[in-house]
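Task 17 of the worksheet. Students: predict the tertiary structure of the chain below and write it out as structure tokens. Keep your answer in the requested format; marks are given for formatting as well as content.
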Amino acid sequence: MFHDVKTKMIAIILFLCILVGMFIWYGSLSPNPNLNHYPGDKEIINDYDSHIGEIVEVGGKVISTSPLTIEVKYGTETMDLFVSGVEEETLEGDRLTVFGTLQEDHTVTATRIVIRPRINYLYMYVVSFIAAFWVLYRIVSQWRWNRTKKALEIRERPLKFKEVLSIFKGGFSNG
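Model answer:
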């Protein structure tokens, strides 16, 4: 499809600009309950009183279980919110996402919650780390860089694990 390097680079830059633009557009959307986009951490911290009685969606780290309290953060600002109406057991350090009605005195009456235990983050990072190395191994073992075409090419014969290790040590050069 794209055969010269200049066209490939222009296409990559164009797609990256579109992607960044979509991130900025999505981040600029304001809360709209009709679209299931409710006031969140940012809106609650910036203007708590104007959202009292509204349905909100907030998340934070559990800092106390009796009464259930989460620490909501936005940027450098933090706010402690009490959460009522929760039957599930939570532990300090868990991440809690609460969907409910914002009340006076820094309380959210929960209608739905999602609890993410601390161990989930360790699991996520370990599995992602292993997966990243697996993908890197697959790319290096099955593809090679063609310097004249300035493109990746599939290898005629996939490299074995020891050959891939020698590439990272700098001793393998015949592609």
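Marker's comment: The mean pLDDT is 88. The two ends are 25 Å apart (CA to CA).
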